[in-house]
Amino acid sequence: MAIVDITVIPVGTATPSVSEFVAEIQKVLQKYEGKVKFQLTPMSTLIEGDLKLLLEIVQELHEVPFQKGLQRVCTNVRIDDRRDKENTMERKLQSVQSKI
Amino acid sequence: MAIVDITVIPVGTATPSVSEFVAEIQKVLQKYEGKVKFQLTPMSTLIEGDLKLLLEIVQELHEVPFQKGLQRVCTNVRIDDRRDKENTMERKLQSVQSKI
Amino acid sequence: MAIVDITVIPVGTATPSVSEFVAEIQKVLQKYEGKVKFQLTPMSTLIEGDLKLLLEIVQELHEVPFQKGLQRVCTNVRIDDRRDKENTMERKLQSVQSKI
Amino acid sequence: MAIVDITVIPVGTATPSVSEFVAEIQKVLQKYEGKVKFQLTPMSTLIEGDLKLLLEIVQELHEVPFQKGLQRVCTNVRIDDRRDKENTMERKLQSVQSKI
User: What residues of A are in contact with residue C58 (Cβ under 8 Å)?
Assistant: First the structure.
């Protein structure tokens, strides 16, 4: 089980606001309900699931601004993949909080 | 007002677990209570405040694994800085959620 | 044409050195000679080509430390994708250098 | 000795081109000639030197698009900091190339 943390930055938007693109990304993710877990944070979108599927979703989310007419997109992805034990968003938070 | 999103990855830990370092980072941040806002997510730590102070905190958090004896640290920082309107973690989330 | 910039950080290596993993990544890329362009920098590996293929390569490179026995890998990917004009590593450098 | 890898993405540029901002960043860096080493790659700018100074430079480079009238900037920084041996851009490349 892997977790990806993705930001999709549209370049050439004329205005500083990008929230319409981030909202559209959340709508795309709703199609994957039950297959992956996802969480919006103030800085990015986190998605948990099988890595192959996650990278397909990364590509789909990266396409969102192009579909809205933009010509350049800069996407940033962090992948955290741990295979000696269950690696879920919930477990990671608990593991840190138990040590504070 | 800027927001930074930081991950501090200690290299050479012998085991795959890094939660003790992330927990220590949360303890360091508690010193800044009232000066910055911070939030732990499953993938990183978000900090909101004056950018100059945020970058000083980035350096302090980056030092945490060295203080615990590690010899190499890879830190990743995303800065989101918007100056035409109030740029807070809370407002960013609301702006996206109002458009879903 | 897209460009990805990838760092693959193995977690739990016992020593601070990760160059053996980076070298193995260059060997994997040699299989793709002619299909993508790639360049090693002191901080990451850059790969230029069709985005779908690039993301398949990202997954393959991310597997390298697991194949060498590691149990956790943190991979960081920046994607730059521009569709109004040819977006190559060479053209990007020239475009900046002509303006300095 | 630390190395930082920085991309400064101006948001709200009207056009997809950002090379004028990247060129300006190289001009700012020329002021630091002799104090830090720097290298432009097709995807980012690498800077080697004392970490405290590097983070001051990060802040200065992040200001470049604001000085040109933009209202939002998303900056991404990777820090690689190794203290058991000399950590230079040149040595890192040699270390990988000797293992390919």
Answer: 55
pLDDT, mean of each 10-residue run, chain D (100 residues): 97 94 97 98 98 98 98 98 95 96
Q: Enumerate the residues of chain D whose CB falls inside 8 A of the CB of residue B59.
A: 51-52, 55
Whether residue C1 is predicted with pLDDT greater than 90 in this model: the reply is: no
Burial (CB < 10 A; 0-12, 13-18, 19+), residue B66, is middle
- The number of domains in chain A is 1
Structure tokens at C27: 């060997």
SS3 call for B96: helix
Give Cα D56 to chain centroid, integer Å.
11
**Nearest residue to A48 (alpha-carbon basis) of A15, A6, A7, A9:** A6
From D15, D72, D74, residue closest to A12, measured CB to CB: D15
Which ipTM was obtained for this model? 0.97
**Domain range holding B78?**
2-97
**What confidence tens digit (pLDDT) does each residue in B64-78 have?**
999 999 999 999 999
Structure tokens that stand for D16 in this block: 């997809």
Q: Please give the residue of chain D at the shortest CA–CA distance from C5.
A: D43
Residue B27 half-sphere exposure toward CB, CA atoms < 13 A: 12
CATH of the domain at C83: 3.30.70.930
